Every structure is written in C-alpha cells, then in structure tokens.
Amino acid sequence: MKILHFSVWLIIHLIAVFLLVLFVDKSERQNSSWDAVFITKGPFCFHIIDKESVRLVQLSDKKITEPIPSTVEHMGRSYYVRSIGFFSMIKYFDWSDVVIPDSVESIGVGAFLGAHTLTNITLSANLDRINAYAFMWCTELRSVYFKSDTPPSISGFRYCHPELTFYYPEEYKANWPETLNGIPCRPWNPEESANQLSEEPEKTEEQTESISP
Q1: Where is pLDDT greater, at 188 or 16?
Q2: Bridge-partner residues for 169, per DSSP?
Q3: Of 48-57, 87-96, 190-199, highest mean pLDDT
Q4: Where are the domains of the chain?
Q5: Are strands 97-99 and 71-74 parallel, antiparallel or unpaired?
Q6: Dihedral sign (CA 200, 205, 207, 209)
Q7: Is the dihedral of CA 48, 155, 172, 120 positive or negative?
Q8: Domain covering 21-197 in this structure, CATH number
Q9: DSSP state of 114
Q10: C-alpha span between 162 and 180 (Å, rounded)
Q11: What is the DSSP string of 166-210?
Q12: Considering the entire predicted model, what is its pTM?
C-alpha cells in the first residue's frame, strides 16, 4: 500500500513538473522575439530573451572552474544574465558551492533539481522568484545565503538536507521571519564572511616553534 501511495505521489509530481515546464516555456517564448538566438561562452549556454537580457539555459561541462557571469558579450552587444532557466543546471552539475550573480532575478522550474553535490549557494541581491522544484532533491544542500532585503517568492526547496538553513543579511532582520516554508532563517554578515575567507589563520606558538630553524 505504501508503495502504491508513493507511486501515485511520484506520478502526480512528474505531471505537475511537465505542465509547469510547458507553461513557463510557452510564456517565456511569447515574451521573446529572439527564440533561435543562443550564445555559448565557455561552459555556459545562454538564450537571448530581449535586447538587453539572456537566460542561462544549459551547462556544457560539469568541471566548471569559473563563476556564472553577470553579463555576456555577443556581436558587440552586452547582455545581462537575468535568469537561470528551467532544468538548466542538472545535466552536468558537479558543484558544491555556487554564487548566483546580482543580475539574476529568477531561478526557473527544476533548475538545480537533484544536484546532490550542492552544499552551499549564495543568491542574487535582486532575486525576485525561485520557482517550483528549483532545488528539489538537493540532498546535501545545507546553507542558502540571501542578499535581498526581503524574502523572494520561494517554492523550490523540498527534500534537501535536514539541516538546511536560510541566511539573510543581519541589517534586514526586521524584514525576515524566523522560518520560511518551514526552514529556519538566521542572520549573517556578508562582509565578515568574506573577511574570514580571505584571512590566513594565525599560527599558534607550537606551530611557530615547529617551523623555526
């Protein structure tokens, strides 16, 4: 009986994802006159959606050593990376830490679905929406760092790590709840975190003596 219930639940979710993808794809194409124009830059493939914007639609290589760019150049024109497309990051995904540039305003349906290596992600300060299933089954995802002053529209976190925590800039503490979709929210200081990463740890007296001639 449990297996039957799970099978029905899984089928319903798959149908829902399929319908969402059809809806998003149709609506995005209706708002775009650049349907056939794509840009490949390194391991990233972008779809031009208007005269100023592109959407990240696919990775071509899972061994990525460069961050997602905020802008891309094509034919003498500069485009802002405005969104992470639906199911765009799952084919070759092999990252543990990801930083979404501040140009990004939305993360598409199932964008990081099943990205089991993802442990930490820092989101755009201008992020407005995280769509359904965006981070579903990211089983190792423990920390999500928001830079926005208020929570964006969120519906994409399910079946992540049990210790998953949302972090928001402490200066905006009054705008954030203690929990969001059942996930605890905690303040953080981006500047202190950056300094901690850049500073070398101080040597103890024992370490100093051990390397002394």
Answers
A1: 188
A2: 188
A3: 48-57
A4: 21-197
A5: unpaired
A6: positive
A7: negative
A8: 3.80.10.10
A9: T
A10: 14
A11: EEEEGGGGGGS-SEETTEEEEEE-HHHHHHHHHSPPPPPHHHHHH
A12: 0.75
